[in-house]
Amino acid sequence: MTTRPTIRFLDRTTPPHILTLVLITGMAALSVSIFLPSLAAMTTYFDTDYAIMQIALSGYLATTAVLQVFIGPISDRYGRRKLVLGSLSVFVLASIGALLATTIEVFLFFRILQAAVATSMALGRAIVRDIVPQDEAASMIGYVTMGMALVPMVGPMIGGGLAQAFGWQATFVFLSAAGLGTLTLVYLDLGETVKGQGTSFRDQLRTYPELLRSPRFWGYVLCAAFGSGAFFALLGGTSFVASEIFGLSPLWSGVALGTPAIGYAVGNYLSGRFSVKLGINRMALIGTLVTVAGLGVSAILTAAGINHPLNFFGFCVFLGLGNGMMLPNVMSGSISVRPHLAGTASGLGGAIMIGGGAALSQFAGSILTVETGTMPLQLIMLGVSALALLSVLFVIRREKQIA
User: Fold this and answer.
1) Ramachandran quadrant class, 199 (left: phi over 0; alpha: psi -120 to 50; beta: rest)
2) Prediction pTM value
C-alpha cells in the first residue's frame, strides 16, 4: 500500500510535481557545461590566460563540492523549500552579475556564486525520498535525474549556438532567464516536504570516523572520483582542444562536448538493466574496462599521428559509456557499506568526487598548448581511468577477504 501524498501541480501546499524536480536538477547540470564552448572567446574578451579562465569551471566545481557536505543537514533542519528558493535566487542574481562583468575578477566571483544552484541538484533527490516510499524512490529518482543525463547532451550545443550567433554573453542571458523561470515555478509548485527534523551537521561530523575507517568505502569513492575525474578533465580542456587545436566553431565545440553524454545515457540504461543480475562490483569493473579500452585506443591513434576531432571526441563516447555503467554502482556501493550512515556517505562521497574533479579540470586546462596537442589531456584521462579500475579491483579483493 502506497503512502505517496497528494500532489497538485502549481499548488505549493502539496509536494512538487515531478516536472518541477526535473527542471531544478536540470538547471544545476545546465550551469556546469553550457558556457564551455565559449571559454576560448571569453579568455580573449577578458584579456586573460586560459588557465585563469578555467577557474570558471574548477572554482564552480570546488564550491559545489563544499556545498555537498552541508546541504543535507541544513535542509533537514530548515526545510527543502527555503533552500531551493534561496539557491535559485542567488543563481539568477549571479548569472546577471556574470553577464554584466567587465573584468575577469568580477566575472569569476559571480560565476563561482552561481554554484549555489548545486543545492537544487542535491535536494531534488532528498525531496523524492521525503514524498515516496523507499521501494518507489529509485524509480522516481531515475525520472528526476533524467534532466542531469539529458542536459549535458544539449546544453553545450545550446551554448555553442548562442555564442556563435550572439556572443558569449547570450549564454548568461539564457541562464538568467531559465533560472528566473525555474524560480517562479518552484515558488508556485514546491511545497515543503520536511518539517525541521533531521541530523545536524555536528551530529553528522561525529559519524565520519566510522565511515572513513572502511576500506571499501574508500575504494568505491575513489573509483567514482577517478572515473568522473576523467570527464571533469575533459571539461577542463575541451574548449581549448576544440577551438585552438582543431579550429571548431562554438556550435561544433558544443556538439563535440555532448558526445560523452550519449555514451553515459546508454551506460545508465545498461546499469539499470543488468546491475541486479551481475552485481554492482562486476558492473563497475566492466564500466572501467570499457573506459580504459576506449581512451587507450584513442591515445594510441593520436601517438600514431591521427590527430582528428573524430578520434579525440569520438572515443570520448566510451568515457561516457563506462562512467554510465560504473558511477551508479559505485555510488550505490559507497552508501551501502554502512547503511545507517547512508546520508553522510552520500554527502562526503559527493564532495570527494566533485572536489577531485575540480582539481583535475584546472590541471588539464593549465597544461594544454597548441604545441602539445591533445596527448597530455588524453594521458590524464587514461591515467585516472586506470586508477578507477584499480580501485574497483581493490574493492573486489577486499570483499573476498571479508567473505
Assistant:
1) beta
2) 0.79
